[in-house]
Amino acid sequence: MGELNATGYSSNRLRQNLASFLIHDLRCDWRAGAAWFESQLIDFDVYNNQGNWLYLSGRGTDPRGSRRFNPDKQAEDYDADGTYRKLWL
Question: What is the CATH number of domain 2-88?
């Protein structure tokens, strides 16, 4: 969230991880998260943004329930040495 707030950008993988965490772990309304991302992203695209949030919340055209990312596994898979986390956390 720090990177997004400071720069207006985050990678697609991180956007999905953030959405998953906000929806499933913090129990945030997906619509509020989608609106906040819309207000922050410099490369905002309505279809990608809404699609990611709908997909992860289990709504939309493929409503299979919970699609939760495991934050610890994602960190290990995509930032094993912790460089990104050291920079932004």
Answer: 1.10.579.10
Domain-wise residue ranges, the chain: 2-88
Which range among 16-20, 57-61, 64-68 shows the weakest confidence by mean pLDDT? 64-68
pTM: 0.86
pLDDT-derived band at 80 (thresholds 50, 70, 90) equals very high
Q: Three-state SS string across the chain, please?
A: CHHHHHHCCCCHHHHHHHHHHHHHHCCCCHHHHHHHHHHHCCCCCHHHHHHHHHHHHCCCCCCCCCCCCCHHHHHHHHCCCCHHHHHHC
CA–CA gap between residue 73 and residue 49 (Å, rounded): 23
